[in-house]
Design goal:
four-stranded parallel β-sheet, five-stranded antiparallel β-sheet, globular, alpha+beta
């Protein structure tokens, strides 16, 4: 084993972690999987007072070759986390445990970022990946985004929705996007905003586009055909598509603005055919897109990680 492995951060049961690790090992790359879903039961992680004083299961990993981050499962609502029984038995103790877990893993990732380790991708400290800031930064950089509000104010919703089709979805995602209807604008329905804010966005009814960028290059462009407003659980056809050079340049610019060397981004066209950015994902899933569209996003990512290990 080298003293500078490529680190894969996430759950060992995540197919993306598994297959990336397998392909890297096929290339004789030293790989260490840090199972953040299992942590703190395992692995054993120790941080010292020096920035590069980091050991995992007794191995010095202060200067890894590269880091591929899928998830650190830092809160009970994270996908893949199942602590329902623990929350029912002692919710306070469970939340404290997650707080302590996050206060160990965030600085761990931050140390590697400070040391200049190539990261796919680090966790930003300024919240720029959250949708309300992400879209504002993209718009501020002159990139096309849909008209959007995030609010708990019924009056703002009614004014925003007047005379046009609007989609709504959770601020943090995790549920399907739906079209706002007349029943959603009643006083009773809008009172639900007092429990949680919601995203309201101009409804784009054109092509769904998924684009992957890696190290300053566009590596895959696909169109997802679906009868549903939200294609994520209803994709029917995924196919490669050619896009105008202007759109590809905008995608590279968007990745740069968000500080992402690796991203899968979602765009959708409006009634005039103009593509607008819906979201940039810092750790996108890609295996299903490879399988359906015949792309090789996996190969490109593995090659990028392996290049740092040589």
């Amino acid at each position: 084993m080298s003293d500078r492995p490529v680190l894969l951060i996430g759950s060992s049961s995540d197919p993306h972690i598994s297959v990336v690790g397998e392909k890297l090992r096929d290339l004789q790359v030293d790989v260490l999987v840090v199972d953040t879903l299992a942590f703190p039961a395992s692995p054993a992680i120790t941080l010292g007072e020096q920035l590069d004083s980091i050991t995992i299961d007794g191995r010095d990993v202060g200067h890894p070759s590269a880091v591929y981050l899928r998830d650190i499962y830092a809160q009970p609502l994270a996908f893949g986390v199942d602590v329902a029984d623990e929350m029912e038995q002692d919710w306070r103790r469970t939340l404290v445990a997650f707080r302590e877990k996050s206060q160990m893993l965030y600085p761990l990732l931050g140390r590697w970022a400070q040391l200049g380790v190539p990261f796919y991708n680090p966790l930003p400290s300024d919240g720029r990946l959250s949708k309300p800031l992400q879209l504002a930064l993209l718009e501020g950089a002159g990139l096309p985004v849909p008209e959007t509000i995030w609010t708990n104010d019924p009056g703002s919703v009614r004014r925003f929705a007047a005379g046009r089709r609007i989609a709504y979805k959770p601020v943090a995602g995790g549920a399907a996007t739906k079209e706002l209807g007349p029943d959603d604008l009643t006083d009773e329905r809008l009172r639900a905003l007092s429990g949680a804010p919601v995203t309201f966005q101009e409804l784009l009814a054109g092509d769904n586009i998924r684009i992957y960028c890696l190290d300053g290059k566009v590596i895959a462009t696909m169109r997802v055909t679906s009868e549903a407003l939200d294609y994520r659980q209803n994709d029917e056809v995924i196919e490669r598509v050619e896009l105008p050079a202007e759109v590809l340049d905008q995608c590279l610019r968007a990745a740069e603005v968000m500080g992402l060397r690796w991203t899968g981004m979602d765009l959708r066209s409006d009634e005039n055919g103009k593509y607008k950015f819906l979201e940039l994902n810092a750790s996108p899933m890609f295996l299903g897109f490879d399988a359906n569209a015949g792309t090789d996003i996996l190969g490109a990512l593995v090659a990028a990680l392996a290049a740092h290990a040589t």
